[in-house]
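User: I need a structural model of MgsA AAA+ ATPase C-terminal domain-containing protein from Cardiobacterium hominis for a docking pre-check later this week. Nothing fancy, just the predicted structure tokens so I can convert them on my end. Input:
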Amino acid sequence: MKAAFAYVRANPAHPVPLHLRNAPTAVHKNEGYGTHYRYAHDEPQAYAAGQTYLPEAMTAAGVHFYQPNRRGFEIKLADKLEQLRALDAAATANKTGEKP
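Assistant: Understood. Predicted structure tokens for MgsA AAA+ ATPase C-terminal domain-containing protein:
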């Protein structure tokens, strides 16, 4: 929590990614609001691999606020996070033609 507060204090407000923005009007739709949004529950494993939810500046900087420790239930959470990050890496590699 402290890291998130420190980040917000130290960094300017970043724009919300276009695919997460509501498009209530034709103008917004023409500007790309809501385009390419993927509903996770319609995806394999109910996870939209490669879909980002943080602003581009944070994603590009590799910002992560949650770092599970390796004890108790957080062991399972850490393992799941590892699996999801591998899915993200594979999805990103498929977009760019790289190997994960």
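Before docking, keep this in mind: The chain has two domains: 1-65, 66-99.
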